[in-house]
Write a structure and sequence with these properties.
By secondary structure, the chain is α+β, with helices and mostly antiparallel strands. It is built from seven helices and four strands, in the order ααββαααββαα. It is globular and about 70 Å long.
């Protein structure tokens, strides 16, 4: 067999392999639903496992600003890793996680009122009645701000069903 013939034959094999791979990939992609299901009860970065993208949940209360936590002050709780700016913030969180954890696991309360788990963004936040809320957008934060108690009441009602849809 000549070198040219071997090269042509190898090219034909590679083409067939590529075609088979693409057929498999298309079949696999078709089996995946277009909307991926949310899998966390607390919003966490799927690559790092960090709750609320590594922001310190206590800093919202103490500093009035969303601040990043540091790797030196990490705590594993509720299936995610929380980061804090300093040891005192971590101690405060351990003492009262129900206060410092974002409400609805960090999901947007306006989305929860619609029965949907939509992750809130750690830099779109609001504290209402000493509780932290994260929002998907400035529009949902404004909608919440217009009547926070009414939104909270409906979200509280819908949350058990939304939470059941989240895989532990």
């Amino acid at each position: 067999m000549t070198a040219l013939r071997r090269q042509q034959r190898l090219g034909a094999c590679l083409g067939a392999c590529r075609a088979a791979f693409f057929a498999w990939a298309l079949a696999f992609a078709a089996a995946i639903p277009l909307e991926a299901a949310t899998t966390e009860r607390i919003v966490a970065d799927r690559h790092t496992g960090l709750a609320i993208s590594g922001f310190d949940p206590v800093s919202y209360f103490t500093d009035g600003v969303a601040r990043m936590g540091v790797a030196d002050h990490e705590l594993a709780a509720a299936g995610v890793t929380w980061r804090f700016r300093k040891e005192g913030n971590m101690a405060a969180f351990v003492a009262a996680p129900e206060i410092y954890s974002p409400q609805f696991g960090g999901y947007d309360p306006v989305a929860v009122t619609r029965g949907v788990a939509t992750a809130g963004h750690p830099q779109l936040w609001l504290i209402h009645h000493k509780r932290l809320y994260l929002f998907q957008s400035t529009e949902t934060r404004e909608r919440f701000s217009a009547d926070p108690d009414a939104v909270r009441d409906v979200a509280d009602e819908k949350w058990p069903d939304v939470e059941r849809g989240l895989i532990p």
